Amino acid sequence: MNDSVNLSAAAPVTKVPATKIRSDFSLIANWVSPGARVLDLGCGDGNLLAHLRRTRQVTGYGIEISIGGVKASIANRINVLQRDLEGGLADFADGSFDCVILSQTLQAMHRLEALIESMLRVGREAIVTFPNFGHWSHRWQILRGRMPVSDALPYQWYDTPNVHLCTVKDFDHFLAVRGYRVLARQVLANDAPVTFLPNVFGQLALYRFRRA
Fold it and tell me: Interhelix angle for 23-31 vs 47-56, to 10°?
C-alpha cells in the first residue's frame, strides 16, 4: 500500500473544542474499543479520527478524495490517504482493521454495496452513519412538490453530490437481506436519541454491524 500522505499520529490536534464534540462522534467512540485499529472512509477534515485517537487511543488511517479535506486531516495529524473510494479497498489486506467507518458518506457513493462488502473484508466490523431521508421534514417538502433541502441534506436537486439517499427502514432492510449482524443502532435528532418512530423523527442514523 502506497500512502499518498502519511504523517505521524503523535501530538493529537483537533479543530473541535472538547466542549463541542459532536454527539455522533461521542456515540461512535463508545462503539470503538480502546487501542483499536481504525480505517475512516471519507474522513473529511480528520476530526473524527482525531477524536477517536484522543479518547480511545486508536491508530489507523483516513481516506479522503478532496485536497481540502486532506490538508485539514494533515493539520489534525491524521495518517491520510488521498484516493477515490469508488476504486474500492483492494490495497488493504483482509482483517487489517478492527473497525471501518463510513460517516455521512454513504449517500454520495455509487457502488455502495461493493464498498460495504469491502469494509467487512478489511475490518472485523463496520460503523455507518447517514442522514435519514425519511425524516418528517423531508416528507413534508416532497408532499409540497419539492425535493427536500435541510441541514443534513443542504444541496439543491441540481447540484447535489448525493446519489443514494435512504431511510432508516431502507438500511434495516439492506442489512437484514444480506445477513449482517447489527451490533448497535442509534438514531439522533438535535443531538438526542430518538426512540419513538425513529424513521420519521430521526435526522441521523448510526449503525454498528458485522458479518453474521
Answer: 50
Tell me if 145 is assigned to some domain: no
pTM for the whole thing? 0.87
Question: Residues 14-26: what's their mean pLDDT?
Answer: 59
Please check the confidence at residue 11 and state whether its pLDDT lies above 60: no
Strand partners, 50: none
In a domain, 118, yes or no: yes
Residue 210 contacts residue 176 (beta carbons within 8 Å): no
Pairing verdict, β 180-189 and 204-211: antiparallel
Which one, of 188, 6, 207, 15, lies nearest residue 116 by Cα? 207
Choice between 17 and 132, residue whose per-residue pLDDT is larger:
132
Instruction: List the one residue out of 78, 68, 76 whose CA is nearest residue 40.
Output: 78
What is the domain count for the chain?
Answer: 1
Specify if 13 maps to a domain. Answer: no
